[in-house]
Design a protein that fits this description.
single chain; alpha/beta; Purple Acid Phosphatase, chain A, domain 2; 11 helices
């Protein structure tokens, strides 16, 4: 059997209630026997929305999942609670009614830890990192509280130990910093440790919104981040919540950002090219072999095609560069990662401040900056 693993999928924004039958032009995806993605949203019809950066749709997204022939989704991520904790159970209920599998989050810790069986002998387990400076506001499941399966070594080993004898698992991680090419050094150490476990077949990562490299260890692979697979452009209303505007509001929206950040006026968020390239994996259950394929999403509408030409050459070379960097001794790699993370974070913040300056004008921008500094210190 061939299973296709793809990256982040969001069915709102410009894709809201749009047909999805012909959205993906990839033989690897379309010819697979099963398709697994990271569903970067809750599916909920309740009116409550959390006061945070949000992504969500109503239950009409179920029809789109079916049109995309998606069989199973990961729910262990930082947006699953965007319509409140009750919506986590609601999302699971909607998926079950549509006969779409799910894993990684649930109405309590036991359900969040429940493996989804891809075959009789192969399960998939989902986890979300939490309590990190770069990954916060995570609803972690407890014995009686809805949330995600926590990404901690002891939690993973507990789940692996509960597998029946002779059964194996694919581990699915939502982790790391956003918008960086290199994962933290400790993440590379963790996947190497886990790949040495005979019960672990491979590890697949999400969250960085761009393709990261692969760690080869113990004859197996860990794909650190697949990137955005189907992630449409969308509108943001101040400060950071997703907006579904009227046509009149769309027509009068003057500001466009290629980043993801707080805004002071209604803003149209579009993805950069590096955020529209992703990796899909064709996994053969008979041989446990993995074939990676690069795909790219169109700029103005989330149609996905296989990457070709100069773009494919660039990513093929760069992917191997990342693979090499992951083999460096940890002390050396840690220094490279810290420099890279600092450069990305600093550049990102400066670009955001420049955008906000353009929205507010110098006077209001300085006033808000002074108020922020006074609150901070």
């Amino acid at each position: 059997m061939k299973i296709c693993f793809a990256g982040d999928v969001f069915l709102g924004g410009d894709l809201l209630k749009k047909p999805c039958s012909n959205l993906v032009e990839s033989s690897v995806y379309n010819n697979a026997d099963m398709r697994v993605v990271n569903l970067e949203q809750p599916i909920s019809d309740n009116v409550h929305v959390e006061d945070k950066c949000t992504l969500y749709t109503g239950s009409y997204a179920l029809d789109q999942l079916k049109e995309l022939n998606i069989n199973t989704v990961n729910l262990a991520h930082n947006h699953i609670q965007d319509k409140g904790l009750a919506a986590i159970s609601e999302t699971a209920g909607h998926l079950e009614s549509a006969k779409i599998g799910h894993f990684g989050a649930g109405s309590d810790l036991a359900s969040a830890k429940q493996p989804y069986w891809l075959t009789e002998d192969l399960a998939i387990l989902g986890y979300c990192e939490f309590s990190k400076p770069y990954l916060k506001q995570i609803a972690v499941a407890d014995e009686k509280v809805p949330g995600v399966n926590p990404l901690r070594l002891e939690s993973i080993m507990y789940d692996l130990d509960r597998l029946p004898i002779g059964k194996k698992a694919i581990l699915y991680f939502h982790w790391g910093m956003e918008h960086v090419w290199l994962p933290p050094a400790d993440d590379i150490s963790l996947v190497k440790l886990l790949l040495e476990d005979n019960r672990v077949v491979t590890i697949i990562g999400m969250h960085a919104h761009r393709v990261q490299g692969v760690v080869n260890h113990a004859g197996k692979q860990a794909y650190m981040c697949l990137g955005n697979f189907i992630f449409p452009n969308f509108y943001i209303e101040p400060p950071v919540q997703i907006l579904y505007p009227t046509e009149e509001i769309k027509k009068n929206t003057k500001y466009i950002t290629r980043m993801y950040h707080a805004v002071y006026k209604i803003t149209y968020k579009k993805w950069r090219w590096v955020n529209r390239v992703s990796l899909i994996l064709e996994f053969c259950t008979n041989t446990s072999s993995i074939k990676p394929t690069f795909v790219v999403q169109d700029d103005n509408f989330p149609r996905v095609r296989e990457l070709k030409g100069i773009g494919l050459i660039f990513y093929s070379v760069f992917f191997n560069v990342l693979r090499f960097l992951y083999t460096l001794p940890k002390p050396i790699y840690s220094v490279i990662w810290k420099i890279h993370a600092f450069e990305v974070t600093t550049t990102w913040r400066l670009q955001i401040k420049w955008f906000q300056l353009r929205q507010l004008g110098i006077k209001d921008f300085l006033k808000k900056t002074v108020n922020y500094v006074q609150r901070k210190f």
